[in-house]
Amino acid sequence: MEASATGSVFWAGHATLVVTSPQGTRLVVDPWLEGNPMVQDDWRTIDAADAVVLTHGHFDHITDAVSVAGATGAPTISNPEIAGYLASKGVENRIEMNKGGTVEVGGVRITMVHADHSSGITVAENEPLLEGGEPAGIVLRGDGFAPVYIAGDTNVFSDMTLIRDLYRPELAVLPVDGHYNMGPAEAACASELLGVAHVLPVHWGTFPMLAGTPDDLRRELEGRGVRCEVLDVAPGGHVPLPPA
User: Fold this and answer.
1) Is 2 within a domain?
2) Computed from CA positions of residues 205, 15, 149, 229, in that sequence, does the dihedral angle turn out positive or negative?
3) Domain holding 171: CATH number?
4) Total domains in the fold of the chain
5) Is residue 186 part of a domain?
6) What was the pLDDT predicted at 6?
7) Which portions of the chain are predicted below pLDDT 70?
């Protein structure tokens, strides 16, 4: 994975991201590697990270949090409920936070913001879900790049205008699947509310039911008259962080 001079966002597949700052700080977001049909074989393991950031407790976002934390020694950053679950799995280096909070790792400020979804943690098949707290999105800010909003799993919500007004993101990473999250029409509305110049669509194509596509999002943006570039990359691809 090559980073640009301003850093990069690498999309491993589904919702798993690796964000590298211009200074080289590496954040692994929502790791689901083993068993993820979109992830290339050479990305089944990650052995270098400065933090593992988790938006919510669903299996397709936290399955490999324990293994990545163990392999890298990086702290996990999550809500308190997920942190408690990770503690039960032997993860010692944990940072708890919640919505409105900000922590800094390697010069990158990570702010937790609202998401409209759920967050139950799967322990075993046919067993009740564990309490996973509330889902969240994150905003990343740091020297050398413009703010980035990673929505996690969510529907569109009107308070995305607050994210726009408070943090002024230039790039939004949005789900577009239209089954467990917002579809292309809702994601186009979210892009407009956020006022972003670029959007990276994720959480699509992994399974047949996740039917939204970047092309669908592009058509919906055009239909709304929204000028926003859709960054359409295949799993294993990367996009540069927007310059400051």
Assistant:
1) no
2) negative
3) 3.60.15.10
4) 1
5) yes
6) 82
7) 1-4
pLDDT of residue 28: 98
* pLDDT score at 27: 98
Q: Within 10 A of 176 (CB to CB), how many other CB atoms are there?
A: 29
Determine the Cα–Cα distance for residues 151 and 134; give it in Å rounded to an integer: 13
14 in Cβ contact with 36 (< 8 Å)? yes
Residue 73 lies in a domain: yes
Q: Which pLDDT score, from 0 to 100, does residue 5 have?
A: 75
Output phi, psi for 243, to 5 deg: -65, 150
Residue 129 sits at φ, ψ, to 5 deg, of: -70, 145
pLDDT of residue 233: 95
- DSSP structure class, residue 243: B
The SS3 of residue 236 is coil
What span, in angstroms and rounded, lies between the C-alpha atoms of 123 and 223?
Answer: 43
Collapsing DSSP to helix, strand or coil, 198 comes out as strand
Q: Domain of 226?
A: 8-240
DSSP 3-state of 219? helix
CA 215 remoteness from chain centre: 20
In angstroms, the CA 215 to CA 201 distance is: 10
The pLDDT of residue 3? 44
Q: Is residue 1 part of a domain?
A: no
Q: Is 100 left (phi over 0), alpha (psi -120 to 50) or beta?
A: left
Q: What does the pLDDT read at residue 131?
A: 95
pTM of the model: 0.97
Instruction: Using DSSP, state whether 214 is helix, strand or coil.
Output: helix
